[in-house]
Amino acid sequence: MRVDAGLAKLLGLSRTAVAAIADADDVLVDGRVVGKSDRLTAGSMLEITLPAPPQPITVQAIPVEGLKIIHEDDDIIVVDKPVGVAVHPSPGWTGPTVVGGLAAAGHRVATSGAAERQGVVHRLDVGTTGVMVVAKSESAYSALKHAFKERTVDKVYHAIVQGHPDPIKGTIDAPIDRHPKHDYKFAVMNSGKPSITHYEVIEAFRAASFVEVHLETGRTHQIRVHFSALHHPCVGDLTYGADPTLAKRLGVTRQWLHARQLGFHHPADGQWVTFTSDYPDDLAQALEKLREEG
């Protein structure tokens, strides 16, 4: 195997992390420095110098423009996440975050979970807008984490995908794992985690289809990966094969994907609650252009 692939498997690290170790001349085979693309051979002596552990990630209380509060009570806070905002801090991300924005606005959240993502029970991609919930009380954190795990939460997304899915109503049941060559992407892989997406075409246009999606599971990039695998990527999603010409014509600079609605049993009293988010301007304008084109 290649050095990067073999060490990623051996150490449980990403290929990007292993490549960085190799690029620092910290991988030796039989006493000789090797690169990430060199080959490992059976019977060789392998020496690896691991980098120092990363510094803990902290939440920076920085105001986030466009972060709206849809609902707040003693147990939960429901927000409308704008584009370009991560849910919580992570290595390599220096932009705004939902948890940082809530902290800056003086909102208290649960202390459960890792320090950088306290109160977070689910996530949206940086480029995906829409409704999400953050736990404020410890009991709400536990209840919501359980609800997402048991798939009792109703997660409804709206997307515009290229072409016309056939059938117009169906289920995509295909496991998802990290892409074998690109760490920043995911792909349908036999080795992946079970992933189930239900969809229905709401409106069809000449070049694209407006679809409603219900997520049964919640894998990273799930909707984007599943529709890309069907050769119907989300409009504007250049990472997963979308047509840049169509994206430019519609004026979208990210995937047309919006967390439209979120429903769950309220952790305080068990009553079913539903929250909805309106389309942001860039997505609404792109949809209107498609309707005008017919």
Helix-strand layout with pairing:
Layout (H helix, E strand, L loop, with lengths): L2 H9 L3 H9 L3 E3 L2 E2 L12 E3 L19 E5 L3 E6 L16 H7 L24 E7 L2 H12 L4 E9 L6 E5 L2 E3 L7 E3 L7 E9 L3 E8 L6 H8 L14 H7 L6 E9 L6 E5 L4 H13 L1
How does this structure look, described?
With 294 residues, this protein is of the alpha+beta class. The chain has helices spanning 3-11, 15-23, 98-104, 138-149, 222-229, 244-250, 281-293, and strands at residues 27-29, 32-33, 46-48, 68-72, 76-81, 129-135, 154-162, 169-173, 176-178, 186-188, 196-204, 208-215, 257-265, 272-276. The strands form 3 sheets. Strands 4, 5, 6, 7, 8, 11, 12, 13 and 14 form a 9-stranded mixed beta sheet that branches. A 3-stranded antiparallel beta sheet has the order 2-1-3, with no helix packed on it. Strands 9-10 form a two-stranded antiparallel sheet. A hairpin with a 2-residue loop joins strand 1 and strand 2 (32-33). Helix 1 (3-11) packs across helix 2. The mean pLDDT is 94.
